[in-house]
Structures are given as C-alpha cells and as structure tokens.
Amino acid sequence: MIGLAAGMDMADMAWEVRCREEDMKQRALDNERNAIDDARRSVDEKAEQLKVLANQATLFAGFSMVVLVESNVPTDINGILLSIFGGATACVIALMLVSSLNATYMLVAILRYDCVNRDVPFDEFWRKRCEPDWKLALRAFSYGVPLFMVVVSLVAWVTFWGNGAWYIASSI
After folding, report:
1. pLDDT digit string (tens) for 128-152?
2. What 3-state DSSP class applies to 74?
3. What pTM value is reported for the model?
4. Residue 145: which of 45, 55, 60 has the closest Cα?
C-alpha cells in the first residue's frame, strides 16, 4: 500500500512538472505574440504620423506653389517687395518638400521593419535610425507653417500694390 501511494505521488509530481513545462511554453508563446503585436502597433502608429506629416507638408507646398504661380503681380511693383515675396514662397516650398520627403522615406523604412523576426526592438530601431530624420521633418514643417502665413499676407500686399484702396484705408 505504501508503495502504491508513493507511486501515485510520483505520478502526480510528474504530471505537475509536465503541466508546468507546457504552461511555460504557452506563456513564452503568448509573450512572443504580444511582442509582435506591440511592434505592429508601434509601426502602425508611426506610419500614421508620417503619412499625416507628409500629406500636410505636400498640401502646404502645393498651395505655396499655386500662390506663386497664380498671383497677379503688377508691373510697377517694388523690386524688394517682389524679392521678399518670391524668396519667402520658395522657402516655404523648400521646407515643406524637405518635410514631406523625409517623412516619406522614413515611412518606407518603418514599413519594411520585420515585426516577426525583430533583430532589434522597434523603439530602438526608431531611436537610432529614424529619430533624427523625424525631428528634421517636424522642424522643417513647423518653420514652414508660419512662413506660409507670411506668404499669404505678402500675396495680398503684392496683389494690391499701387492700388488706391491702400491709400483710402490708411487715410480713414
């Protein structure tokens, strides 16, 4: 009877060890799935940010180009004012193109990131390879937006240069 009880205890212990091993394997598998899901979420979040930045920068560059091409510049305009207008518009276009192109190139890089066979974690990948370009793109965009507002105000000044309405408004 004692031998049978010892045998049953041994079998129970073996069963518990086996169940514990299976549980550890399942937890390791769950942890790996969670890591893959976290990497995919991070990639999707950054991809969405980059898409928005690239689209907005492209819109601002396009609007600036339209302002430059479609504005009615009088023939008797002051050369300095025209130079400031053209230079500011060109700067907006250049800044927005830098922002848009950097965001697009980073988007390509992170969409190629392998979430399943991660050589490095995505946060480290982003910090080492993309963070400086992200900062440059965001800085170019943040400088370009106020400059775009300057261009909008300059287009009114350029368009109505020499018009009597300025003099009437200033005398009131």
Report:
1. 989 999 999 999 999 999 999 999 9
2. coil
3. 0.77
4. 60
Given a cut of 60, is residue 116 above it in pLDDT? Answer: yes
Other Cβ atoms closer than 10 A to 112: 8
Q: Are 93 and 61 in contact (CB under 8 A)?
A: yes
Q: How far apart are CA 113 and CA 152, in angstroms?
A: 40
Confirm if 100 and 136 have CB atoms less than 8 A apart: no
Return the HEC string of 142-154: HHHHHHHHHHHHH
Pick from 143, 133, 141: which is nearest to 57 by CA?
141
Q: What pLDDT does residue 167 have?
A: 52
Contact 82, 166 (CB under 8 A): no
**Cα 108 from Cα 44, distance rounded (Å):** 12
Residue 146 amino acid letter: P
The string over 128-163, giving b where at least 16 C-beta atoms fall within 10 Å of a residue's C-beta and e elsewhere, is eebeebbeebbebbebbeebbeebeebbeebeebee
3-state secondary structure of 119: coil
What are the percentages of helix, strand and coil residues in the chain, rounded to 5? 85, 0, 15
